[in-house]
Amino acid sequence: MSNQFIDLITKRRTIYAIGKNVSQTPEYLTDLIQHAIKQSPSSFNSQSSRAVILFNGENEKFWALVADKLKSYAKDEESAAKTTAKMASFAAGVGTVLFFEDLDVVKNLQAQFPSYAENFPIWAEHSTAIAQFATWTALHTEGLGASLQHYNPIVDEQVHAEWDIPAHWKLRAQLVFGSVEGEAKDKGYIDDAERFKVFQ
Asked: Is residue 197 part of a domain?
């Protein structure tokens, strides 16, 4: 089918080979990311998503923290070297968006609407996922590559300390981005009959 939005999300892919060869300024990309998150829907318009945007040296600092933390999990020198190389590939990008959910917002909603209390944490996960997807797609429209990573909670303590993050912000994901330096891998799809049911 032909649809502008579908075309955009079809072309948005995981790109692991990224670099710093971008024409956009950090100010422009910050504005883009902020707008993508602000326009992302959330349950009860809670706007519980939070983001810390790291560029250049701050981006490299984050992935160095992750690399240092992961060294303690390495079984041998070979696996340690692979992990270090992987973190270096993320540090090679121009930036990373650290996505958080504000747990105080979730708790306040649970108190206000007790009949929905057990659902608000689930809905918060929906909200952050939508914000991540919207940001990823927005960066794609600028010709940038990105991949979504999840090195929480192993670096939560260091992140909160290094960038003075409020304790009630819960780290959920890291979207690393930069210039496209390599193609995405082929993507396969399971048969539609396994995923969808339609009734008319």
From this structure: no
Residue 1 forms part of a structural domain: no
The answer as to whether 170 is a domain residue is yes
Helix (H) or strand (E) segment spanning residue 55: strand 49-55
Number of domains observed in the structure of the chain: 1
Local confidence pLDDT in tens for the 200 residues of the chain = 789 999 989 889 999 999 999 999 999 999 999 999 999 999 999 999 999 999 999 999 999 999 999 888 777 777 778 888 999 999 999 999 999 999 999 999 999 999 999 999 999 999 999 999 999 999 999 999 999 999 999 999 999 999 999 999 999 999 999 999 998 888 899 999 999 999 99
Strand partners, 50: 100
User: Could you tell me the residue range of the domain that residue 89 belongs to?
Assistant: 25-182
Instruction: CATH number of the domain at 107, please.
Output: 3.40.109.10
Contact 141, 8 (CB under 8 A): yes
